[in-house]
């Protein structure tokens, strides 16, 4: 195996670290999605309140720089203060040292006292946190795209009139971008090497960055060089970006845009404080950038908008390349340099730690006019930072952002463990205090259930007993109902038999109705007792999901026979049961021989008695031979009785 040279070894090492970083980013994104799902569907994540940040722009750094490693080593995680450990007078806003990426900044202004955190409900804060988690997922997607991209993008940004366009022109050694003493850049201008456009120098005005394709003429508008200044300064067509393909004039160290290692793009941006829309676009655009070159006007130092931008970019970029432009116009340069470095120390500690390579005081005008040693050194450091230190410029921001996210997740996890522990303790305390009452309620519920079953069982038994006794008495007095039927002679024998059957049935139906009324009374009494038990249950404060006895609109005193399952009306059955001639004769002598013997023995008695007495004898006989046999015997016996009379 041939020995790898230094360049090949560095490329392989860089590719391996890219794969590892890609895996870590995917895991972090998955973790954020799980937290968001838990926050939305299971339980709102507890968002802590901590001390008001009195240290101005100072913030803690979660990473340390290291020359020998790919990325910075994260600071050891520490347990953050909980709300119980912070005095009420100080529990106002979240301290920047506790959360960075997942911080919800609800201040209405730059004054820490003007917060709205206390006025929001927990559910509202949970929704804000869910939105923040979604933003972090989107940022991780951009980091994944940046790692997969083989090129490097350098964003040149800063406040208005800081000399950003002049700096870009000085870096490519061509007067490409328009420059003026007044702010002139109204849209993003990306300067790339013409080799990416088949060696043709062109300017493409892009309406939509996402849809841009240099091979598709419909996705851009070509702009002439003489019209570039008007487009950049006015942007009447509302283009999102200008893509400028140019041939760079290389320095003594070689070309920056087309260097043989990676393709580099220089992106000139509008000023930070031009308007809120441009500033918001710039904040979003820096998330797609590998290297940020922040241009500071030596006469103004860092403005508030510049400070906010650096703090926001510091969530992922530990190292910011800072160029203090127009330094030639400063009379007391040592004082200016000291003041700017003091601000940088608070804004980006790791940048300050490597200030000799990352902070430069230059004049772009001097470079364009004839060259400058300070500018040449700045250009060399930028080239080294972008090309030779890709571990730091391309991969370190992704590692830093991931470390900050995990630090915030650990902080939130510790706070939620504490909040859950306190909640569990409160619940256990309430359970201990109310356990005797709960056990008493269970005992009362058991007693009430047993009493309800007793009421139902006793009511059913009472209805069963009364009905059986009453129907037995009714059976014994069927003869009395038959006595009321008048006998019309032999010619009316058929009608007589039907009238006797009808009288008996109506008598039985009347007695059954009496049993129904007794059952209604018993049920009414049982319902009254159950309603009393229901009232007792409600007074105990139990849940209303138990057995519902009756609503407030139910009238427990209005129970009627219609509310009970009907047993049928006996008289209605007469329409389907009629007397036939065969009902008077039964030829099955083998089955009824004993009965016929008894019948013939009784015929003599029937002949000597009155008609009414004979009929009653037949009724008594019917009780011993069964309903079907008796019905068939009645008519035959009646004929014999009539003949004997």
Summarize the structure.
Helices cover 52% and strands 8% of the residues. With 645 residues, the chain is an alpha/beta fold. The longest helix is centred in the last third of the chain and has 87 residues, at 390-476.
Topology:
Elements: H1 6-41, E1 63-64, E2 73-74, H2 122-148, E3 152-158, H3 164-172, E4 188-193, E5 202-206, E6 221-222, H4 228-234, E7 241-246, E8 264-268, H5 276-285, E9 291-297, H6 304-313, E10 321-325, H7 333-347, H8 349-353, H9 355-358, E11 359-361, H10 364-369, H11 373-388, H12 390-476, H13 478-483, H14 493-539, H15 589-607, H16 611-625, H17 627-644
Parallel strand pairs: 3-8, 3-9, 4-7, 9-10, 10-11
Antiparallel strand pairs: 1-2, 4-8, 5-6, 5-7
């Amino acid at each position: 195996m041939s020995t790898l040279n230094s360049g090949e070894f560095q490329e392989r090492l860089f590719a391996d670290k890219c794969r590892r970083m890609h895996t870590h980013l995917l895991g972090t994104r998955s973790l954020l999605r799980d937290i968001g799902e838990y926050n939305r569907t299971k339980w709102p994540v507890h968002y802590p309140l901590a001390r008001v940040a009195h240290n101005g722009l100072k913030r803690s750094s979660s990473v340390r720089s290291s020359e020998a490693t790919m990325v910075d080593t994260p600071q050891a995680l520490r347990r953050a203060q909980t709300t119980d450990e912070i005095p009420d007078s100080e529990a106002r806003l979240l301290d920047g040292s506790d959360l960075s990426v997942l911080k919800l900044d609800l201040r209405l202004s730059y004054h820490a006292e003007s917060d709205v955190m206390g006025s929001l409900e927990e559910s509202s804060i949970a929704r804000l946190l869910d939105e923040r988690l979604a933003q972090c997922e989107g940022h991780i997607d951009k980091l994944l795209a940046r790692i997969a991209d083989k090129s490097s993008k350098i964003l040149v940004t800063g406040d208005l009139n800081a000399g950003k366009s002049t700096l870009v022109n000085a870096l490519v050694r061509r007067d490409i971008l328009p420059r003026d003493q007044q702010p002139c850049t109204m849209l993003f201008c990306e300067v790339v090497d013409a080799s990416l456009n088949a060696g043709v120098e062109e300017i493409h005005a892009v309406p939509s960055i996402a849809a841009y394709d240099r091979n598709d003429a419909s996705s851009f508008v070509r702009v002439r060089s003489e019209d570039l200044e008007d487009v950049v300064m006015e942007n009447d067509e509302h283009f999102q970006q200008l893509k400028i393909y140019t041939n760079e004039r290389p320095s003594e160290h070689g070309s920056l845009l087309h260097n043989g290692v990676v393709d580099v793009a220089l992106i000139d941006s509008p000023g930070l404080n031009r308007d809120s829309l441009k500033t918001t676009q710039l904040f979003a655009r820096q998330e797609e950038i590998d290297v940020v070159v922040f241009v500071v006007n030596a006469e103004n130092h860092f403005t508030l908008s510049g400070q906010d931008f650096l703090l926001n970019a510091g969530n992922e970029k530990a190292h910011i390349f800072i160029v203090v432009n127009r330094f030639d116009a400063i009379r007391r340069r040592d004082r200016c340099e000291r003041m700017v470095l003091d601000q940088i120390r608070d804004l980006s500690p790791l940048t300050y730690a490597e200030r000799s390579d990352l902070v430069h005081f230059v004049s772009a005008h001097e470079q364009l006019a004839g060259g400058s040693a300070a500018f040449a050194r700045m250009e060399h450091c930028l080239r080294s930072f972008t090309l030779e230190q890709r571990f730091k410029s391309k991969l370190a921001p992704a590692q830093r952002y991931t470390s900050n996210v995990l630090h915030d997740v650990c902080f939130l996890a510790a706070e939620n463990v504490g909040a859950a522990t306190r909640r569990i303790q409160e619940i256990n305390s309430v359970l201990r205090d109310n356990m005797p009452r709960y056990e008493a309620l269970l005992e009362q519920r058991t007693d009430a259930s047993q009493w309800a079953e007793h009421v139902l069982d006793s009511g059913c038994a009472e209805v069963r007993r009364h009905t059986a006794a009453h129907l037995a008495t009714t059976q014994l007095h069927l003869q009395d109902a038959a006595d009321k039927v008048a006998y019309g002679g032999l010619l009316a024998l058929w009608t007589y038999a039907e009238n006797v059957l009808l009288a008996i049935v109506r008598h039985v139906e009347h007695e059954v109705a009496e049993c129904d009324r007794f059952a209604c009374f018993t049920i009414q009494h049982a319902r009254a007792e159950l309603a009393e038990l229901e009232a007792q249950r409600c007074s105990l404060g139990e849940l209303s999901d138990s057995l519902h006895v009756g609503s407030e609109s139910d009238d427990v005193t209005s129970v009627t026979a219609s509310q009970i399952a009907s047993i049928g009306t006996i008289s209605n059955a007469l329409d389907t049961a009629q007397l036939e001639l065969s009902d008077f004769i039964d030829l099955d002598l083998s089955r009824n021989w004993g009965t016929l013997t008894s019948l013939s023995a009784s015929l003599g008695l029937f002949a000597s008695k009155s008609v009414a007495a004979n009929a009653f004898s037949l009724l008594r006989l019917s009780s011993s031979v069964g309903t079907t046999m008796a019905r068939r015997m009645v008519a035959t016996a009646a004929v014999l009785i009539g003949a004997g009379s």
